[in-house]
């Protein structure tokens, strides 16, 4: 394998090449990255109808002691359902009666940490209501605060901190009383007080994202953006403003309710916290099973222009001032939008017409915004203007490996490519992320690096899975209420975190290996050194001995900082698990024999990165 490092032959890789795609799928946000512990905060999960769906809230006490129902009596007009709790017992059971919320498959409460509780209550009599965090089905109390109030005849906001005196991974929040009477309860929130920068993100999960150094964040879907029906699609306007006034919505593709605490504003904030370019995927008036025709698209276009004003407008603008009121007077640097998700196919005949309406309106109002079309321009030119086109691919490992050359063959004119969803995935396969999958994906990404004159962005999908709601597998990061680990596909991406903005060099590889090896060579720098990085995937089951040579180096190789990193395992189908989260992870070692020409042995089924310090 020979690399030509002369600057004449080099090319800069786009700054944006590798990023992240966040979708609300598999409880990635609600019950995941978004640290809110209460599920169905406003008893609204059935929509604004009564009786509403109060799941997963449950009742503590029997029919003779408590009667619970929902009513349209909330103080929040966009969120009109509240819970009415009638305590019937004169002498209530020990501990009282009431309701509890188990969060998302149990709340992770940790000793010594504090939790911010907010809720709204009303009663015609004085109240004595205990808010407790309990473990083991209510048997062990790990935090309690009692609300005693003599005048709550109007809705009253209660705010308090609960300090945990024990650790329990499957806790629940109980609201109980032994006092006869009626209490109305609404909008109950419990958030750990140590979220990332106080922005509401679960720290360990956001740190895993940061470790990938993503250059962009595409959000919030995926099919989550589309909905099965338009009425269930993501509507940015309903996800901003005070959390108590967000109606929430039922995501009918992934079949769960979200209170939308993680809304449009928070996702822009997430991109900022990750130092990533936000990419807003908006609904294009099309869902998976219904769509508006072109005569009805104008309000959708206006809605998107408003969303852009929310992100980028001045403090004096209508929507910019709403953003500022939420705590972000600075504009969010939103420079990319995607018109819909997977909407360009012959079951959706209105896409092209809608697209042009969005395109023209956005181009006129925000000429610097890059507009992404859903139509695949890799096999034939697009028949409409676009800055990038979206490309999704899910295939088995062999086919993803073979796709490493896909973009060598595509046209160099026209829009750039955004591979916004790629992964080894086969419908019905229950694999949770193998070494084999990560090797195939690594080869595919090497192909994207090599073709990064035309491919400008790429992101793996899906990013997260809560192990309790595994709707799509594999995923990059697996978590439950308190643990998390990266699959081999997550670790594979760490080999590419220095690629965006680096320099790629031409390389020749003995052609007899093209069926089993994939390789690229880049130079990148940290604060001290420049490195030549040669990455090689050995997809085959035989070890390969290679001579690596770098021609055109201006100085020699500094062996003291050179290193080799390998991702491999005993079995190609090996996975990581909660019990063994580091079963398949990269191993780094020094490279004392680093030189302009050196012998290297690639073990079977491996991904190796040679970093030669220059
Ligand atoms: O990543 C999972 C799903 O795959 C996305 O929601 C959709 O865009 C694609 O079909």
Automatic annotation (TrEMBL):
Matching entries from Pfam families are given as: Alpha-L-AF_C, ASD1_dom
One BP term from GO: L-arabinose metabolic process
> Per its UniProt record, what InterPro entries does this chain match?
Alpha-L-AF_C, ASD1_cat, GH, Glyco_hydro_b, Glycosyl_Hydrolase_51
Reaction(s) catalysed (UniProt annotation): Hydrolysis of terminal non-reducing alpha-L-arabinofuranoside residues in alpha-L-arabinosides
Entry annotated with the keyword Ribonucleoprotein: no
Predominant subcellular localization, coarse grouping = secreted
EC class name? hydrolase
Q: Where in the cell is it found?
A: Secreted, Extracellular space, Extracellular matrix
Q: Write down the EC number.
A: 3.2.1.55
Identify the domain of life. Answer: Eukaryota
Q: Name one GO molecular function term.
A: alpha-L-arabinofuranosidase activity
Every copy of the Alpha-L-arabinofuranosidase C-terminal domain together lies at: 420-606
Keywords, in A-Z order: Extracellular matrix, Glycoprotein, Hydrolase, Secreted, Signal
Q: Does the keyword Glycoprotein apply?
A: yes
Q: Which SMART domains match?
A: Alpha-L-AF_C
Q: Which family does it belong to?
A: Belongs to the glycosyl hydrolase 51 family.
PANTHER family given in the database record: ALPHA-L-ARABINOFURANOSIDASE 1 (PTHR31776), NON-REDUCING END ALPHA-L-ARABINOFURANOSIDASE (PTHR31776:SF25)
Q: What name goes with this protein?
A: non-reducing end alpha-L-arabinofuranosidase
Q: List the source organism.
A: Hordeum vulgare
Task: Give the lineage.
Answer: Eukaryota, Viridiplantae, Streptophyta, Embryophyta, Tracheophyta
